[in-house]
Amino acid sequence: MTPETRYQKTPLNVRLLCLVMATLTACSTAPAKNTWRDDRLKTTGTAKAPQMLESWGARSESEDPNDPTIAPGFLISLHCLTDSKLNGEYRVDFNGDLQLPYDITAHTTGLTLLQLRKKLVDLYRPYFKTSSEIDVRIKERRYWIDVRGLVDKPGRYLMEPESSLDSAIGMAGGTSKETPPLYVRIQKGQQMFIFDLTQYYTQGEDHPQILGWLGGEILFFQRERTGFSGERLPYAAGRTPVYMMGEVRKPGEYSLTPGADFLDSLKQAGGFTEKADLDDIEIIRTTAGHKRVYDFSWSDFQRAPAPAQGDIVFVHADNVTKFERHTSLFATLIAAAASIVTSVVLVLAYNRGRI
User: Fold this and answer.
1) I need a labelling partner for 264 at 20 to 30 A (CA). Which of 83, 126, 202, 225 fits?
2) Which residues contact 303 (CB under 8 A, 6 or more apart)?
3) pTM (whole model) above 0.70
4) Running DSSP on this structure, what letter comes out for residue 50?
């Protein structure tokens, strides 16, 4: 081998191809699963324990009364001069969706009235030859709640804005006579409020803690007080309390017998909802004040650690759009193709003595 050959540089096109292949491979690589990580390393998107509140339903003082936030249960009135088929009244469902003509679903969560109007104009723009305005108004302000547990008629009910807990109990047919509940757990997303019914019946509305409804609450009437921040009652010996949160049908606290795994807690929580992302589940564990998170997919739950007292299992929602899925798949295919092409180019270049 001559000195010229020994120190001959790799051709520029080969080096560029290697760089492109490495970049695409890195972009299409999924994050590692089945490993513990320090929760402080993740600054966004980390599941948090439900927030315990001193009162429920307090409205934001900064909310504009002329541009209120849409809530589950609101009756929305639409009027459009261009297309009379849109004219009518439509109620926001429990999950915050608004089902509209032409098979349109508008997600209203977090939107104000003006933002909803703009969103509907954008959604219906393809249906009109020219730009068209849609008049959007709130016809009625009532709120969906879902009543479960120790009541005679569990189900979803529409509540007046400032109606009391008695109204919710009355709509659900009253509490169970055989096993009367002692507490009601009110939950919406990651917010939770535990209400002592004995205290409520004693003090009534003289000291109200329910200041109004938000829409989309789950009320669970139960015998035991379950919550966070040290508000747990003593547990039976040999039982491990864990918290099933996020996209499960019955979020809350469940006790597991020794040797049980997270499959048992999932059964008690009623299984996953339709929106659950089975590839994005977290176990949040605090030990000696140090919070750690374990990421895993449900298809590989056997590798998850055994449940420990106070574990929070958070099932994330699948918010990935079809476009994002297709983009991810396309990036993976491109990376694979680039890897093959690079290997072929390197082999040919080597055989020709160019590297």
Assistant:
1) 225
2) 34, 296
3) no
4) P
Per-residue CA distances from 286 to 48, 108, 237, 301, 310 (Å): 12, 35, 21, 20, 8
Q: Compute how many other C-beta atoms are within 10 angstroms of the C-beta atom of residue 175.
A: 17
Per-residue pLDDT tens over the stretch 159-179: 998 888 899 999 999 998 888
Q: Where are the beta strands (DSSP E) in the chain?
A: 35-38, 51-52, 75-79, 88-91, 97-100, 104-107, 135-140, 143-149, 155-159, 183-188, 191-196, 217-222, 240-246, 252-256, 276-287, 290-296, 312-317
CB atoms within 10 A of CB 48: 12
SS3 117: helix
**Count of beta carbons in the 10 Å neighbourhood of residue 251:** 24
Nearest-angstrom CA–CA distance, 69 and 147 = 23
33 close to 296: Cβ distance less than 8 angstroms? yes
Q: Contact at 8 Å (CB) between 222 and 150? A: yes
Element (H, E) at 84: none
